[in-house]
């Protein structure tokens, strides 16, 4: 009986969960070139952005899908990519988050959260930052 309830619950609740999806910098930069070329120019002049990043994928019960603003599986902002300051060597120590809001496009640069040595290996993730701190609702403008 427990297995039956678990299967039933997972089938019912799965479409409600936001799904992550990968997105390429080429896709996002093409969209920025069309929607906000000055922002793209600033990003390209200041940062080396990794070729792949993350975005949210819309499920069938998303408000944006239900209201016809986007389709199932469309990727929406915030887009998140690893980056580094232009001209530096080594890994990508920063994260750039790009969002479109009612009042235009925005981006945030932040350091990647690194675990302190005391936190490593203890199995606790209580001190980790959320992957998407901006949870304010936005209008969906999806990349098909």
Tell me about this structure.
The N and C termini lie far apart (41 Å). Mean pLDDT is 75; it is low at 4-18 and 122-138. It is globular, with a radius of gyration of 18 Å. It has a domain at 16-111. It has 4 helices and 6 strands, in the order H-E-H-H-E-E-H-E-E-E. The chain has helices at 2-13, 25-35, 37-46, 63-66, and strands at residues 19-24, 47-49, 52-57, 75-85, 94-101, 104-111. The chain is of the alpha+beta class. Strands 1, 2, 3, 4, 5 and 6 form a 6-stranded antiparallel sheet that branches.
What's this, in brief?
The chain contains 4 helices and 6 strands; from the N terminus they run αβααββαβββ. The chain is α+β, with helices and mostly antiparallel strands.
Features:
globular, 29% strand, 144 residues, 4 helices, 6 strands, alpha+beta, 6-stranded antiparallel β-sheet
Shape descriptor reads globular
Number of strands: 6
**What Rg is obtained from the alpha carbons, in whole angstroms?**
18 Å
N/C terminus separation:
41 Å
Quick check: average pLDDT? 75
Secondary structure layout plus pairing:
Elements: H1 2-13, E1 19-24, H2 25-35, H3 37-46, E2 47-49, E3 52-57, H4 63-66, E4 75-85, E5 94-101, E6 104-111
Helix pairs in contact: 2-3
């Amino acid at each position: 009986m427990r297995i039956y309830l678990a299967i039933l619950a997972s089938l019912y609740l799965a479409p409600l969960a936001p799904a992550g999806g990968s997105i390429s910098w080429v896709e996002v930069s093409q969209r920025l070139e069309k929607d906000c070329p000055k922002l793209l120019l600033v990003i390209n002049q200041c940062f080396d952005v990794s070729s792949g990043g993350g975005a949210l994928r819309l499920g069938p019960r998303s408000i944006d899908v239900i209201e016809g603003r986007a389709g199932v599986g469309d990727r929406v902002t915030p887009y998140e990519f690893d980056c580094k300051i232009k001209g530096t060597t080594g890994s990508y120590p920063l994260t750039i988050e790009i969002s479109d809001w009612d009042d235009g496009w925005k981006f945030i640069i932040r350091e990647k959260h690194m675990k302190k040595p005391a936190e490593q290996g203890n199995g606790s993730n209580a001190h980790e930052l959320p992957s998407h701190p901006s949870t304010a609702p936005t209008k969906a403008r999806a990349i098909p």
